[in-house]
Amino acid sequence: MDEVNMKTTVLPLLLPLLIFAGLFPAGCSPSEPEKHPLYLKAAQLRSEGNPVEAEGYLRRYLERVPDSAPGHLALASLYDETLGNPTSALYHYEEYLRLVPEDAADRATVEHYRQLVRAKLLKELSGEPLPVVPVAVLAAENRQLRRTNDQLKRYIQNQNRKIAELLNGAPASVPSPSVSSGPRTYTVRQGDTPGKIAQRFYGTASKYPKIMEANHLTGSGNLRVGQQLIIPE
């Protein structure tokens, strides 16, 4: 008998009871399904051997609490183990896996059930069995993903720390380029006057006496085109 049909012996029989009793880890659910009357009624009907009626109550429960991971797991188990509906079982297994945290203790086990029911469904459609990933392989892959995730987190933290250190150690402003200690010079052009030259360098024509004094000029008539003038600070 292959694994798809056998699905082991003990855990599948206990799974429905553990789910309804709230003993099977199923992530966090704010609705606390084990206290909800519809969920409790479904558990009672299933234990009494009425899976069809139990299905109806679970479906009504999920209509009210669509994000209940335990509710999806209970309905998936009911479809898979009792009602023989692999299509619906696959959907609710996938909804459960979508809702629970990545590190949920039972995630690898439920993923294995999802693989089994998927293989069963595809076998029915194609007539050929498909390989099922063992739980041990899935668990190893989950561990590797967690390690990789931790490494990425540490890398990002280190990079953020280095960036912060660089920012904290950087000067408040970029220093201005050094200015030559030698005097500024200017070549006189046609139409220049001491006032115009002062306006160009100092922003005001009133400082023209500084230029005249630095160049020993007695008047604007002393300026010649091409003459080199010293422009004091």
Short description:
With 233 residues, the protein is mainly alpha-helical. The protein is 61% helix and 3% strand. The chain folds into 2 domains: 3-133, Tetratricopeptide repeat domain (Serine Threonine Protein Phosphatase 5, Tetratricopeptide repeat, Alpha Horseshoe), CATH 1.25.40.10; 184-231, Membrane-bound Lytic Murein Transglycosylase D, Chain A (Roll), CATH 3.10.350.10.
**What percentage of residues falls in helices of 4 or more residues?**
55-70%
Task: Please work out how many helical segments DSSP would assign.
Answer: 10
| Low-confidence runs of at least 5 consecutive residues | 1-31
Strand content: under 5%
Main β sheet profile? 2 strands, antiparallel
CATH architectural category of the largest domain: Alpha Horseshoe
Average pLDDT taken over every residue: 78
What is the name of the CATH superfamily of the largest domain? Tetratricopeptide repeat domain
Terminal residue distance: 99 Å
- The strand line-up of the biggest sheet is 1-2
Q: What does the radius of gyration come to?
A: 41 Å
Compute the number of structural domains: 2
Apparent shape: rod-shaped
Say how many strands there are: 2
Region (Disordered): 169-191
Protein name: LysM peptidoglycan-binding domain-containing protein
Biased composition (Low complexity): 169-183
Pfam families: LysM
